[in-house]
Structures are given as C-alpha cells and as structure tokens.
User: Which sequence fits this backbone?
C-alpha cells in the first residue's frame, strides 16, 4: 500500500524473509538498517512490562532493536493484552520509547506506568480498537 503512495519514499532492506510474516530478518537486515536514519519506527511487540519491550522471535527482536537505534522517534503499537507479559527476547528499555499507542481497554494502572516511565500514551477510541485491534 505504501509503495503506491506518491508522497512516500520506500526503501526495502534485504535479508532472510520470514515466511510467516513476510518481514526481513537476520544480519543483512540489521546491516542495512544500521546504515539508515528514519524519522519514525513503528513497532508491534509481543510483550511489555515496566522493565521494557519483548518479542517472541529472536531474529525479529534483533531487527527491531536496530530499527529503534536508527529512528529519531520510536512508536510502539500494542493492544492492552500484551501489557504485563514478557516474551523470549528483550528488545530494550523504556529509554528508547517515545510513544505508546494502544486500545482504550488498557488498565488505568498500566496507563500510569507508561506515563510515569516517560512515554506519551495514546489510547485509540473504543470504536476503532474494537474493529480489529492493535499490535
């Protein structure tokens, strides 16, 4: 969809293409991402705690870590069910997160945690989050 938009410049990085998701992973991907600087990185993750962000796939976690390092702003898009859960690989801490976008079903306790850790919190209205979820 983005590649057909006239106002979008799209760069595709190489690497191993993970069949389940179609994303590029591995050392070639990390190397390509390290040579770039982007305005925003928008990441989906498998888990989020007050200690940081997690993903269930180690290769994906490595690629996402590099994406975070290559971005001026890191935005995490995650549904409320991922809060308080860890996964196999830790991506990093809250010092790398600028903004969290989640659905309006996020427990108020977690809303306070996110804000207290310094990230901007954006809650999607219920009618949008019910239509398909985030993350």
Assistant:
């Amino acid at each position: 969809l983005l590649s057909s938009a006239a106002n979008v410049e799209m760069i595709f990085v190489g690497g191993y293409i993970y069949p389940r998701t179609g994303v590029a992973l591995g050392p070639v991907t990390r190397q390509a991402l390290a040579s770039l600087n982007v305005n925003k990185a928008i990441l989906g993750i498998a888990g989020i705690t007050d200690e940081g962000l997690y993903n269930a796939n180690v290769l994906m976690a490595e690629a996402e870590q590099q994406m975070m390092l290559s971005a001026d702003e890191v935005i995490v898009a995650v549904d409320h069910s991922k809060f308080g859960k860890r996964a196999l690989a830790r991506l990093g801490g809250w010092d790398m997160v600028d903004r969290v976008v989640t659905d309006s079903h996020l427990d108020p306790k977690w809303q306070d945690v996110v804000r207290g850790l310094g990230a901007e919190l954006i809650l999607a209205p219920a009618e949008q989050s019910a239509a398909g979820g985030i993350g």
Notes: Residues 58-69 form the longest helix (12 residues).
